[in-house]
Specification:
- There is one protein chain.
- This protein has 354 residues and is an alpha/beta fold.
- The protein is built from eleven helices and twelve strands.
- A ten-stranded mixed sheet has the order 2-1-3-12-11-4-5-10-8-9, with helices on both faces.
- Strand 6 and strand 7 form a beta hairpin.
- Helix 10 packs across helix 11.
- It is globular, with a radius of gyration of 20 Å.
């Protein structure tokens, strides 16, 4: 079973009082495709557990883009929960997910990858965390075509951003009882950019003597994860590598449908999200799996200090999946999204009535 630490995102930049009963308004972005369906599941689960959350729903999709309404809502509420959003491929449109991260300077993406009891994969007892620098690297968005038939993309790595994400990784490790931080890079080839990232992580590591520190090239890291994922504890990576490795780690535990994610900013803003796709082929058919967004909402609750409610929801999810009688199609079951949600609500209600 997940421990309280395994799903929590610990932010040293903003503190919330644990267990407060004050109602917290949260921006809810349902997203595209199956997004509205899985968002409704989260709302039902939160209502069942009586979480002190008030939803402020705003629309962000490929048509609306990041509107003034969205920006104002997140600036006001600081905290958001986001379903999947589609981005047209190869059309020149900026990724809306990337746009949100840049708008609110959500510099740290945290992806815990923990084996789910009852969902068998090739690996047992996976428990690793990807800490991804979220604002620069190959995703800086600086691209051009200097001459016909030639395209170039500029990779930006700064000491400031590298040092900031390294500190976050070590602080996360300390706060969550982790023993090791691995810096993942390709500095043997990209000596200036990745070299600066490694140098920054190495300097930061000296301030955390209780945490073991190591450096691995990205290719070796991927091989080691496939050979034995239990070698890895906390991994800190530049943007592109983090994007790739976090999905690799999701595959180790059963896919993106079981993987939570959170994005943390310096100014107190945080957006938690499902990182899987919009699945337009099953949208509106009541077949979607809401687990990833529900797990992300658990991270959000813990970030806000609502540990009791988070644990009740978490136990309902994990016990349901362990029992295996009510599972959606992507997990090998035959239940609908609403039937799966009904089961979670039933277990939550039973827990509260004990």
């Amino acid at each position: 079973m997940f421990s309280r630490k395994s799903l929590s995102i610990v932010s040293s930049l903003r503190n919330y009082s644990s267990g407060t009963s004050k109602i917290q308004k949260v921006t809810l972005i349902p997203g595209d495709g199956i997004g509205p369906e899985i968002s409704e599941s989260v709302k039902r689960v939160f209502s069942a557990v009586k979480a002190p959350i008030e939803w402020e729903t705003v629309v962000v999709d490929a048509n609306t883009g990041i509107s003034k309404e969205v920006i104002e809502s997140i600036k006001k509420n600081k905290i958001g929960l986001k379903g999947p959003i589609s981005t047209p491929i190869g059309t020149g449109h900026q990724s809306l997910n990337l746009g949100l991260r840049k708008t609110f300077n959500l510099y740290a993406n945290i992806r815990p990858c923990v084996s789910i009891p009852g969902h068998k994969t090739r690996y047992n007892n996976v428990n690793t965390v990807v800490v991804r620098e979220n604002t620069e690297g190959e995703y800086s968005g600086i691209e051009n075509q200097p001459v016909k038939g030639v395209a170039q993309s500029i990779k930006i790595i700064t000491k400031e951003a590298s040092t900031r994400i390294a500190h976050y990784a070590f602080q996360y490790a300390l706060a969550n009882g982790r023993k090791k931080v691995s810096c993942i890079h390709k500095a043997n080839i990209m000596k200036q950019s990745d070299g600066l990232f490694v140098k920054s992580c190495r300097e930061v590591s000296t301030r955390y003597p209780s945490i073991k520190y190591e450096e691995l090239t990205i290719d070796n890291n991927c091989m080691q994860l496939v050979l034995d994922p239990n070698q890895m504890d906390v991994m800190v990576l530049p943007n592109l590598y983090g994007d790739i490795v976090s999905d690799l780690c999701a595959g180790l535990i059963g896919g993106l449908g079981l993987t939570p994610s959170g994005n943390i900013g310096e100014n107190g803003s945080a957006i938690f999200e499902a990182v899987h796709g919009t699945a337009p082929d099953i949208a509106g058919k009541n077949l979607a799996n809401p687990t990833a967004l529900i797990l992300s909402s658990i991270m959000m609750l813990r970030h806000l200090g609502h540990f009791h409610e988070a644990s009740i929801i978490e136990n309902a999810v994990l016990n349901t999946l362990t029992e295996g009688k009510v599972k959606t199609g992507d997990l090998g079951g035959k239940s609908t999204c609403s039937e799966y949600t009904d089961e979670l609500v039933k277990r939550i209600t039973e827990s509260l009535n004990k």
